[in-house]
Amino acid sequence: MDIKQIQELIKFVSRSGVNEVAIEQKDFKITIKTNQTPTVITTTVPAQPAAQVLPAAPAPQPVAATEAAAPATEDLSKYITIKSPMIGTFYRSSSPDKPSFVNVGDEITTGKVICIIEAMKLFNEIESEVSGRIVKVLVDNSSPVEYDQPLYLVEPM
């Protein structure tokens, strides 16, 4: 199994919502586990004396949590969190050459499309259920997201 196949397997596991996948072949064994924390791959190959632990691409949620934790004096309780209604890939615009649906500082109303989440080759427009001003985008464009993962912080109006 080469690195590209491993990366595709990681993407599949993150999109499917499965918590653990283990594959064992003649000279190769791989286990991928996820639990809302960064994905870790444990690989054991007989030719090497010890197991290798390779970090996968960082999960978007811990990155956002790190950024949100940086300004310790900021009170986040006054903001509304818009969360992902499904597992999939988060897109800020309808195509790479189009502008983002919303940016920091934009005012949104109930029913406004704020992003797209692709799940199983279907592109689902996600509409806001609140009105307010976007304070922070918590997920990078083209990143996998989990069900109920925070996407945006909104200051209510």
UniProtKB/TrEMBL annotation:
GO terms for molecular function: acetyl-CoA carboxylase activity. Transmembrane segments: none annotated. The keyword Lipid metabolism applies. Pfam families: Biotin_lipoyl (PF00364). GO terms for biological process: fatty acid biosynthetic process. SUPFAM superfamilies: Single hybrid motif. It comes from the Bacteria. GO terms for cellular component: acetyl-CoA carboxylase complex. Keywords: Biotin, Fatty acid biosynthesis, Fatty acid metabolism, Lipid biosynthesis, Lipid metabolism. Residues 79-155 form the Lipoyl-binding domain. CDD domains: biotinyl_domain. The keyword Chaperone does not apply. PROSITE patterns: BIOTINYL_LIPOYL (PS50968). Pathway: Lipid metabolism; fatty acid biosynthesis. This protein is a component of the acetyl coenzyme A carboxylase complex; first, biotin carboxylase catalyzes the carboxylation of the carrier protein and then the transcarboxylase transfers the carboxyl group to form malonyl-CoA. This is Biotin carboxyl carrier protein of acetyl-CoA carboxylase. It comes from Pedobacter duraquae.
